[in-house]
Write a structure and sequence with these properties.
Structural class: alpha+beta
CATH architecture: 3-Layer(aba) Sandwich
Strand order of the largest sheet: 1-2-3-4-5-7-6
Number of domains: 1
CATH superfamily: Gcn5-related N-acetyltransferase (GNAT)
Number of strands: 7
Largest sheet: 7 strands, mixed
CATH class: Alpha Beta
CATH topology: Aminopeptidase
Oligomer: single chain
Number of helices: 4
Shape: globular
């Protein structure tokens, strides 16, 4: 994977089917905001994803492998960006791509002047937590009983994580 070209492409209307497929994959969906829904119901979610400050299709050698959205805060917290939604297609998982894409995104956001990048992650998503910690994110808090998956009977906690850069 090290010699492959990684790139970001702004999310477009014609990426809908790909994003829908990744979003509702059994390895991705349990860790995203919405439970299973029809394509017509997902149209509004997709519209919201595209409206974010950064909303990208992730490409490996020009082949779509995932998507990511980032919200840039405004006002007093304009120095903060939040990674809001992130998914890698099943056949690209476990190859180090997620880490490479996040590293590139963090570098780009830092270059844009963001001093803090934050995200939330399900407390039972050990793989993602380890990934974020390997990039320098720290757990800043826990939101108890934050969400409940339709397929489960109990509420789950969500962790707040962030990475901060020194002010020059």
């Amino acid at each position: 994977m090290s010699d492959r070209k990684l790139s970001f492409q702004t999310l477009k209307d014609n990426d809908f089917d790909f994003v829908y497929e990744v979003y509702f994959d059994e390895t991705v969906n349990p860790f995203l905001t919405y439970d299973q829904m029809s394509k017509s119901e997902f149209q509004e979610v997709f519209k919201d994803l595209k409206s974010r400050h950064h909303s990208f299709l992730l490409l490996v050698d020009s082949v779509p492998c995932g998507f990511i959205t980032v919200i840039a805060n405004k006002g007093r917290s304009a120095h903060t960006a939040m990674i809001a939604t992130y998914g890698i297609r099943k056949d690209f998982q476990g190859k180090g791509l997620g880490k490479k894409f996040l590293k590139k995104l963090i570098d780009d956001l830092k270059h844009e002047g963001f001093l803090r990048i934050q995200l939330t992650v399900e407390a039972d998503n050990d793989r993602a937590i380890k990934l974020y910690q390997s990039l320098g994110f720290e757990v800043e808090g826990r939101m108890k009983n934050w969400f409940k998956r339709a397929s489960e009977n109990e509420y789950k906690d969500e962790l707040m994580m962030a990475i901060c850069f020194p002010v020059n």
